[in-house]
């Protein structure tokens, strides 16, 4: 039973934790996104890319130091915007607040760097939402306005974390396989019109 966890930066010098993060990335996406980081090498490359000095890479650790999940991100638009990519939680501990805690921590990290907005893309390659398996053109916004979650797509998780759908990239992953774009203002960031 998971009692507690702590969040801190994932260290490139901790080889065990880096490999655990890569394994989590593959396991967390295996069921609905089997093409994402399908091999251990691809997952390890993604973790190492996230560990670059100009990026954010944070992990949740249990009391024994094992990685439970991790989150990464990179700056865009001169640091005003940060892309959250990826977020992965070990399948056996999902639903216990780890993902939400990682997102909240990521928001704090972005705020500390002066970021104003966080963006992310959440693909639907497996007809998990009403946006998948259909032709979204020409009425893309009508489809977005009536989106339904058919099978546990993570866009609703992100909505619970305060993100809103800002658009969609139809056919991003092939015909009828969109990428759902979401964003959130960084808590504490100034709003337009404020001085």
Helix content: 25-40%
Envelope shape: globular
Low-confidence stretches: none
Question: What is the topology, as strand order, of the major beta sheet?
Answer: 1-2-3-4-5-7-6
Q: Beta-sheet strand percentage?
A: 25-35%
What is the N-to-C succession of helices and strands? EHHEEEHEHHEE
> What is the tally of beta strands?
7
Sheet having the most strands: 7 strands, mixed
- Alpha-carbon Rg, integer: 17 Å
Average pLDDT works out at 94
Number of helical regions: 5
Termini Cα gap: 48 Å
| Category from helices, strands and their pairing | alpha+beta
In a nutshell, what does this entry contain?
With 195 residues, this protein is an alpha+beta fold.
Topology:
Elements: E1 5-9, H1 15-29, H2 40-50, E2 55-62, E3 67-76, E4 81-89, H3 98-112, E5 117-123, H4 140-145, H5 155-160, E6 164-169, E7 179-185
Parallel strand pairs: 4-5
Antiparallel strand pairs: 1-2, 2-3, 3-4, 5-7, 6-7
Description of the structure:
The protein has five helices and seven strands; from the N terminus they run E-H-H-E-E-E-H-E-H-H-E-E. It has about 200 residues and is of the alpha+beta class. It has a seven-stranded mixed sheet. A hairpin with a 4-residue loop joins strand 3 and strand 4 (about 80-90). The radius of gyration is 17 Å and the shape is globular.
């Amino acid at each position: 039973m998971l009692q507690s966890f702590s969040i801190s930066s994932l260290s490139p010098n901790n080889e065990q934790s880096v490999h655990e993060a890569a394994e989590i990335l593959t396991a967390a996406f295996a069921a609905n996104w089997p093409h994402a980081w399908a091999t251990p090498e691809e997952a390890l490359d993604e973790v190492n890319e996230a560990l670059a000095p100009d990026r954010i890479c944070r992990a949740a650790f249990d009391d024994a130091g094992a990685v439970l999940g991790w989150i990464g991100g990179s700056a865009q638009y001169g640091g005003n915007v940060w892309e959250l990519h990826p977020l992965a939680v070990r399948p056996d501990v999902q639903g216990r607040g780890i993902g939400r805690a990682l997102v909240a921590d990521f928001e704090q990290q972005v705020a500390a760097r002066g970021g104003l907005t966080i963006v992310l893309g959440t693909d639907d390659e497996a007809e998990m939402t009403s946006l998948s398996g259909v032709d979204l053109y020409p009425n893309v916004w009508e489809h977005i306005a009536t989106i339904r979650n058919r099978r546990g797509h993570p866009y609703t998780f992100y909505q619970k974390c305060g993100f809103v759908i800002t658009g969609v990239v139809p056919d991003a992953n092939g015909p009828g396989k969109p990428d759902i774009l979401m964003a959130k203002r960084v808590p504490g960031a100034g709003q337009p019109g404020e001085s």
